[in-house]
Design a protein that fits this description.
By secondary structure, the chain is α/β, with parallel strands linked by helices. The chain is about 30% helix and about 30% strand. α9 packs parallel to α11 and α10 runs antiparallel to α11. The radius of gyration is 35 Å and the shape is elongated.
Length: about 575
């Protein structure tokens, strides 16, 4: 009985093995395409970059090869890190965003309170409008903030949320205002920021290529700290500036290597400039940084906004005209803006977008060389450091444009990025969109028929019909899997037949549109190539199985004969 079971099991195993060995399915690898269906918006701020210094750098001028350079770009007042980054991310001026400096005073509350020393308000408590990070997250865009300073979390808005938040570790930011720290330590600050940015972009690159949209905001802090510590005309400032732009160029190379450049919009700009100052021209004594001797006899509170400018909050707002006269008499100011019109000043706070509840009654900008309360070799905050550099780079920029002398502002960045990412532009955004510098973009819809192709062989050439619709701003070229199918002034719907080579399995058909050599639209559609199989019987293996089975069945007979012979003996 046991021998019968052994014979049947052996035969069954051999038959199964014969079938498995015979049937080896063909495999098909989906083609890899370089087209990117999503979009990447990137903002890089080179903190404290003085345009008169950096515009002579070779690395700076190399960026002009990748897009448009704006020669007449300006930041807001105060020309300082916190209000400038707020204007950048909120697309508006302090009178709308509310944020006038890292900390401030509620002007009206100070007028009515009995206290001479007012309560200060943090940047968070000054926020009055919506940031681009909030708008992006509300609409499903990936967001990352990679910055050198904790206070730049202001760019995330009231919600204080981003998909990725990276802040320079404190051990790398130690002693930044010390002019004697090694230059390599300053290099490492920007290197850390760029390396973290590269890590984020690489981790998202496949998502972006597949159709996701992303916003990444970066702050390179080293140049600002070097400017304060060593001055904008120092060798250290020059070296750190070169290194910063080298880092930006390396990031461009990474974006290209990841296949994202054609769908990238990249702003590279300064938040403010840097003027040369001397500690000997510091106006406020170290013991009292909030009261200016020029205003003796007037109760007030002063907040230094970067070194070369300050807000002056008056205890009694009726002292406004008297305070302005004293400041003018000092001959220290190059610009004065007041809460209400006075003939002798440059204008009102409203004129320069500064009429926030947290701005002082007076904004004072000092003449070159002077600073209020910090013994720095370089400072900013006033009108002399308002002019900045700005680049708008990326594959989405028209290749016909490389330079513009149009007057642009830091507040134009956010609405332009909203336009690029297809986001709604909040009413609070007061900047203009610079979308007229974009290369033409189209939205392409396609369908492929037949969606299933029957193959007579494992590899064949097949005719498919490509149907689609496109809105055309200029002459376009439509390709299907690298084969040009149409090149003309296409508008509306199109239908073309094309021959493609397919293998058995799933096949991704890529349709892309080119203009001026750039991919400006694309879509994919799946088709399935199927081969009907008629499995022949594996006769050779069956014969071998029968022979082996017969041999196995003879084993008991042989054993029986041997046993019988032993018994006779």
């Amino acid at each position: 009985m046991r021998l019968k079971i052994v014979r049947k099991t052996s035969l069954l195993i051999l038959l199964v093995l014969s079938y498995v060995l015979y049937y080896v399915p063909l495999t098909f690898t989906e083609p890899q395409h370089s087209i990117c269906l999503g979009r990447l918006a990137l903002i890089i701020v080179v903190d404290g970059a003085e345009i008169s210094i950096v515009n002579g750098l070779e690395e700076f001028n190399l960026l002009k090869n990748y897009g448009i350079y704006f020669s007449n770009a300006y930041t807001v007042l105060p020309s300082a890190t916190t209000p400038a980054h707020t204007a950048l991310a909120y697309g508006t001026y302090p009178n709308v965003s509310g944020v006038v400096y890292t900390y401030a005073v509620d002007r009206e509350e100070y007028h009515v309170t009995k206290e001479n020393i007012p309560k200060t308000v943090s940047w968070y408590d000054q926020i009055m409008s919506e940031s681009i990070v909030e708008v992006a997250r509300e609409n499903g865009v990936l967001t990352a903030l990679i910055v050198g300073k904790e206070k730049l979390k202001v760019m995330m808005g009231l919600n204080q949320v981003a998909d990725v938040l990276k802040i320079l570790p404190s051990e790398l930011a130690y002693g930044v205002y010390d002019p004697n720290i090694p230059i390599e330590a300053r290099y490492r600050q920007d290197e850390w920021i760029i390396n973290e940015t590269i890590s984020v972009i690489r981790s998202w690159s496949e998502l972006i290529r597949s159709g996701e949209y992303a916003l990444v905001i970066v702050n390179l802090p080293a140049l600002d700290w070097t400017g304060h510590a060593c001055g904008p005309e120092s060798e250290e400032y020059y070296l750190v500036a070169r290194h910063a732009f080298q880092q930006v160029l390396s990031l461009v190379d990474i974006i290209k290597a990841e296949g994202l450049w054609n769908n990238t919009l990249m702003f590279v700009l300064a938040d403010h400039g840097m003027s040369d100052t001397k500690p000997s021209k510091m106006l406020l004594p170290s013991k009292d940084k909030h009261h200016w001797g020029v205003l003796t006899g007037i109760r007030h509170y002063l907040i230094d906004t970067g070194g070369t400018a300050a807000f002056i909050y008056l205890k009694d707002k009726r002292d406004l005209e008297k305070a302005v006269k004293l400041i003018l008499k000092s001959n220290l100011a190059d610009a004065i803006y007041s809460i209400s019109p006075i003939n002798s000043v440059n204008g009102t706070l409203e004129d320069v977008g500064l009429n926030s509840p947290f701005a002082g009654d007076i904004f004072v900008s000092l003449k070159n060389g002077y600073q209020f309360s910090y013994p720095n070799e370089g400072a900013h905050g006033g009108v002399s450091t308002q002019k900045i550099f700005m680049f708008m780079l990326g594959g989405v920029i028209s290749s016909k444009l490389t330079y513009s002398n149009e007057i642009v502002s830091i507040v134009d960045v956010a609405p332009t990025i909203c336009e690029f990412l297809g986001l709604p532009i909040p009413e609070s955004f007061k900047g203009k969109t610079l979308n007229y510098f974009f290369a033409p973009k189209v939205s392409l819809k396609v369908s492929i028929s037949p969606s299933v192709i029957e193959l007579t062989d494992s590899y064949a050439e097949s005719i498919i019909l490509v149907n689609g619709s496109v809105e055309v701003p200029s002459k376009l070229y439509i390709y299907v899997d690298e084969e040009e199918i149409k090149s003309s002034d296409i508008s509306g719907e199109f239908s073309e037949t094309v021959s493609i080579k397919v293998e058995e399995g799933e096949h991704t058909v890529l349709v892309k549109i080119l203009s001026d050599g750039k991919v400006i639209g694309g879509a994919t559609s799946k088709i399935f190539a199927v081969k009907i199989r008629y499995l022949p019987l594996p006769w050779n293996l069956i014969y071998a199985s029968i022979v082996i089975g017969v041999l196995i069945s003879l084993i008991p007979l042989v054993l029986l004969i041997i046993n019988m012979k032993r018994k006779k003996l």
